[in-house]
Amino acid sequence: MSELILPGVTASRDVDYAERGLRHLHQAPAGDMPAVAAAFRDAGYYLEHITCLDLRLVEEVAAFRVDYQFCPVEGRVNRHVVQATVAEGQPATSITGIYPGAEWYEREAHELYGVQFDGHPGLTPLLLYEGFDGFPGRREYPFHDYQEF
Q: 1 pLDDT band (50/70/90 cuts)?
């Protein structure tokens, strides 16, 4: 297991890199992500990516899951993925104060899935036009309906 001390992480396990493309998988409450992100930053990791998944229909999760990927600046590939679940209508906490580059990823998750990020400097549309109706990343989004702008 990693030697990192990650405040806020509730569970961790090592993962087979050849099988999954990462070495460590962690779970953390969405509200604790600034502390987790700060621990990675202080240990010399960069934010590789943030993505969101609509797992509201998956019984074990029943929420959105925001995945944060961190890699060390130096040394071998040692990817860590932190999974934070966010119930529909509940906010996650922005990590833009720790990693300014998270701003675009959080805007994308907000725009496509409707996940709010408390403390984000401006969740304005990134990919879709202002006033777009709905969240195209959600499972129930009707892809057969075309919206004219």
A: very low
Nearest to 125 by CA among 140, 104, 100: 104
Find out whether 45 and 57 touch, Cβ atoms under 8 Å.
no
The DSSP 8-state label assigned to residue 129 in this structure reads P
Mean pLDDT, range 30-45, rounded to an integer: 96
Listed by start position, the domains of the chain span 11-118
Write the burial class of residue 124 (CB in 10 Å: 0-12 exposed, 13-18 middle, 19+ buried): exposed
Tokens of 87: 């119930």
To the nearest whole number, what is the mean pLDDT of the chain?
91
Residues 6+ apart with CB under 8 A from 54: 64, 113, 137, 138, 139
- pLDDT band of 130, cuts 50, 70, 90: confident
Superfamily (CATH H level) for 11-118:
NADH:ubiquinone oxidoreductase Nqo5 subunit (3.30.460.80)
Residue 83 CB coordination number (10 Å): 17
| Residue 66 DSSP label | E
Q: Amino acid identity of 67?
A: D
